[in-house]
Amino acid sequence: MNNRSVVPGPLGGKVRQYFRRLGVRQPRVGVDPLDPVLPVGHGSLRRQRRLFGRHGAQRSAARLLALVGFLLASLAPGLALAPVRASDDKVTFTVAFLNEVDSFNPFLGIEASSFEMWALMYDSLTGYAMEDMRPTPSLATEWESSEDGLTWTFTIRDDVTWSDGEPLTAQDVVYTYERIRDGGPEQATWGVYLRGVESVTAPDDTTVALELKNPSAMMPLLPIPIVPEHVWTDVTDDEMKAYGNEPSEGEPVVGSGPFRLVEGTAGGATYRFEVNPDYWGGTPHLDEVVFRVFKSEDPAIQALVTGEVDFVEGINALQVQSLEGRDGISAQMGDSPGFDEYAFNTGSIDT
After folding, report:
1. What's the rounded Cα separation, in Å, for the pair 99 and 239?
2. Strand, helix or coil at 225?
3. Rounded to two decimals, what is the model's pTM?
4. Beta strands across the sheet bearing 207-212
5. For residue 251, what are the β-bridge partners?
6. Cα gap 331→321, rounded to integer Å
7. d(CA 106, CA 3)
8. Cβ atoms of 28 and 66 closer than 8 Å
9. What's the pLDDT at 336?
10. pLDDT tens for residues 95-137?
11. Coil, strand, or helix at residue 71?
12. Dmax of the chain from CA atoms?
């Protein structure tokens, strides 16, 4: 696993989750007028104390860790997936979640768990390396900028299809970005990445060009989930505010990622993903990933011990110690990128 951790696409998702825990809706508008300084606690992006257990007595610890390594890779944009399966048997990886998904719509959700779901369902133009956060290829295989930094040109893969068989082209990227730039709920989460972009065009099916007003240090990091125009074009601006993007009438959600959402609703207790057999990055080692939501740590840990789930995280150090040495359970203590921040409220009332 190379000590890699799962990090949802944009870091802002974790910050928003932290503010929700404080009872604040958004960092931009949730400061009380009397609060001159609002601290963001250290390690708000931290993902600690991961535990992995057996899902069924027939699985060996070695095979389990191989599955865990795959799951982390599939949740983190830009990491490669193996092109062959470990066996011909159906393999289900079950994850214990301590926080429910608030929306499968990548333009509406703010919980970190939602960002992780989108990473299974969709691809972005570029990803980032877990070691140093540098931009890495995803849907875009390469990119270049003009000497003045005002024009960025991305070359798109020509072998990607949506899970319903329709081709994914540069026009889907343009559609997604323009919907964000037009404002509305789509802009709230992803607008910062396209700030200063004056136009987005597709000269052909494998080329996307961005024209900027000023050079941007954000480029070319663009972890925005690309959605299929032929599906989302039927969603009006008014409908977008409540569009759930969930399975309907037995049909999975259309995406381009390694898995397809086949069961689950926002706020629900179970979310089930099946492998996308046409995924451009190769066939995953898993047939399906199931996420089960637990209301607290103790029942999640018990489910790990009994083999009901394969993965649990976010538990405290004492709980980790109580599980150390158990057959088939491996604990990993580690941090993923984090930061501290103090936001000054310039509208504070001096009392």
Report:
1. 26
2. strand
3. 0.73
4. 140-145, 151-156, 207-212, 197-204
5. 248
6. 9
7. 28
8. no
9. 55
10. 999 999 999 999 999 988 999 999 999 999 999 887 888 899 9
11. helix
12. 69
